[in-house]
User: Fold these one by one.
Assistant:
Number 1:
Amino acid sequence: MGTIIALLINMKNKTLSHFKSFFRSINLKTLFVLLGFVWVPTLYNSCAGYEANQEILKSVDLDTNQVNEPNNDASDTTDATNDQTPDNNEFDSSNDGWLIVQDYNNGAVGEKAQFDAGGASRYSDEVSLEGGQSCQMGINAGATGFGQWGGVISHPETLYEGDELWFRVYTYFPEGFDYFSYGEGGRLKFLRMHVENSQGDNRGYNDIYIDGKNASSAFKFIYEGEQRWVNLGEKSLLPKFNQWESYEFYVKFHHKSKDDGGEAVIRFWKNGELIKEITNRKTLVDPTDSSDRTHIFTYWNGGSPKTQFMYIDNLVLTSKTPPDMDEFGNPYVGTGIYQQEATQ
Ligand SMILES: [Ca+2]
């Protein structure tokens, strides 16, 4: 497919005048054959697995994403990270929760990282927050990307009403990355916690979206079991290019909001700063609902506007209470760097 596109681009550049006269003289039947020639491999690549996608992604000119000048200088990350390295053992041992850390430092570069449904998520040494490696996430132009874009982490133990979940991840968007959605609602799925009922039927996700390009806010929250949007943060809080930034999404699962006498609370931080605490939304439909898995990205509403890559590093997903607290006394993972080895 990459070869076909390259050929078409070459033809356009080198023989534009011939190309125009060719199209003026072309009949409808030939046009359909040509369209099929392009469309069928595109469809194949959007459905096929890792190998097909890898081929496409390798054909991208990395110059346009400015990842040719990887910046592994740890001094650039000091603004976003704590000087102290927290100890995983500091996580609250008084509850029975679990802790997952992914630092992507030990996988073979180019191999698929440890996500479900993340065929184009691979270990990379092009940029890293710590340890020399990160996880590169990629998507093809026009693809919605399920099975390729982002990834899914199954919860080691299912979470129920009253349980809490913290999801912290560092992201690096290269210059020129377009993180907006241009269809199917016009918002980009970002951090997502899945909810199901006691029969295993879908109850919708607790979602953080990157809001629309022309929206007033940078992000939005919704619990799909309630379908009420909440704006999160000013536009200035959108991801910045060529730097590591942390995002953290906290949910206390409950079928009633705190404001309604329940326990459901949602918090969202960027770079350790609380963007919003939400106390008037529920996070389950029924008290018997549960949360079985967490997603990062996984489906690009309307399709990606271009073929592009970004990177994540030092992902922490935990139902154990983290040792750090924000300025309001809320426990959170914050900006600390954790080591994967200690949790294995
Ligand atoms: Ca790393």
Number 2:
Amino acid sequence: MTSPASGAASSDADLPDYAPVPRSALGPALNDQGYYVGRVERNLYWVTDGVYQSAFLTTRDGVVLFDAPPSIGGNLRRAVEEIAAANGVPSTVTHLVYSHHAGHAGAASLFDRDVVRVGHEDTRRLLLRDDDPARPAPEITFTDRYTLEVGGERAELAWHGPNHSPDNIYIHFPGHDTLMLIDVVNAGWVPIYNLNLSEDVPGYMGAPATALSYPWTHFICGHLGRLATRDDVAVHQAYIADIEASAKEALATVDPVPSYMHYGQNASAGVKAHLDTVTGRAAAPIIAKYTGVLAAADIEITTTTTFAIIAVAAPRLRAQRTAPPLTRAHRDRASAGPVRA
Ligand SMILES: [Zn+2]
């Protein structure tokens, strides 16, 4: 995800105050260069600048890098060189794996032309479409699964359907007890705008269950300052499930008529008033419940996330009210999608 341009506040005094960030949301301190590199397990490492995260494996045959976020940029090379030297292995980055096509590949062009780039076939398609010299397209692509083996180490790449983006993949390190899934769960924090700017909301909402179906202890989530745990993923799931339940309740109970009556012929204003009322009603108990639990639960992001879920829930609720009951086979097909974890 990328951060939307911030609104132009005329002075600091115009900026609202928010609840303090819980200590549990923060990660280790950054060094003087502005990054932190730490061991995940054995020769798997993660790097953060407090905003973005990436990861790398050091092997006897070179380094495999997983994402090259723009804000970490040149510090990625520093981190790789520091750790490879300490481990006595080559620091040459031989492979770069893309989690998906968007911002997390923004520093990909910093690595040699002869690095082997690996990604989902849609990552290649979308990067060719974007035609951004900073993000060269992967040459090695796959449709559902790909096993990457370098220097005796292994990463299992899998696509289980669209979520944050159409091409966002699961990267499992079976020898390192770790899963990397970017832009779905923000460890200790709520998602930013509209479920981390996700393109497929039902896919995004289902992704944590797929992540939990893998065996792992460490979770590299792509953003902010620390790694995630299975508990973090469970809290995120509870937050999203609570929003969905609250959204359904608000949709079923808020009377739209006063909004439309008030604005008369201005139907757009009526829609806005109605949906703003539903969203506010749905978000209020979530903000109360999660402030102090997840960082940023009290800011408007919870409201935009609630709205994104309402936008998906509303037609589903309408369909549930009007359609004949689905058979079990239909329901499984409708909800399971292409997930094959
Ligand atoms: Zn992101």
Number 3:
Amino acid sequence: MPRRSGVLGCAPARLTHLPRGATGSRRLEMTSRTLSVEKAKRFYDSFGAAQNAQAFYEDDAVSALLERAALDNAKLVFEFGSGTGRVAERLFRERMGESSRYRGVDVSETMVALARKRLAPWNERAEVILTDGSTALPARDGEADRFISTFVFDLLSEDAIRSVLMEAHRILTPGGLLCLANATPGNGTLGAMVSSALLCVNRVSPSVLGGCRPITVAPFLNGASWRLVHREVMRSWGISSEVLIAERV
Ligand SMILES: C[S@@+](CC[C@H](N)C(=O)[O-])C[C@H]1O[C@@H](n2cnc3c(N)ncnc32)[C@H](O)[C@@H]1O
């Protein structure tokens, strides 16, 4: 059973949040390292289907996210960083209505090929697009009503996180939902120890973990653009994940 803790509350380990600007938004000063887009692409091109093995600690967070994302009446679900298509397959099998459409994007050719194959049974309603890793996303203003990204923000730089959130805001219709899950600093002794270990590995060699490190995304959400609907931190196999749903204002 996953351990759930700190709904709307999480103490970041070894990360410092500093006030930034008159809006009160906060700046995450990370002592961690990120991969360049080219290195991330190379990593995931060679990692490929091995990504599915991460499910042992990510699935509980993904399930918690999908439970709250009100997907049955979604018209277009946009996914950033679709990976092998494992979340998209769950959307089609378990969550979306019969007329819901899906569009995923990913920077890795290997991942896009795997996701397209996996989603072939729904190819009339699913598309997976290869991007150059830029945060300019292929969707019209207000075209989507759900924006999902699982275990991708934790490998992005602060600037990229902000850019993707701006794009998510542009793509989503007012009232649409931003649905995110990412590795996050853990609570309690075990959670904090595991977070510290992950950060140590990240600092020595970010590519070992595919660029991932524990981060807290909630402070990036500007209150004028997003209304936080749900946030929780849950732990599975010692690794903590932040699950976050926000409504586009
Ligand atoms: C840890 S995997 C997560 C995949 C999937 N969301 C899941 O939960 O199984 C991260 C994914 O993000 C993709 N990715 C990394 N940087 C990206 C970028 N700048 N634009 C699009 N996709 C990116 C990687 O290629 C990889 O497929």
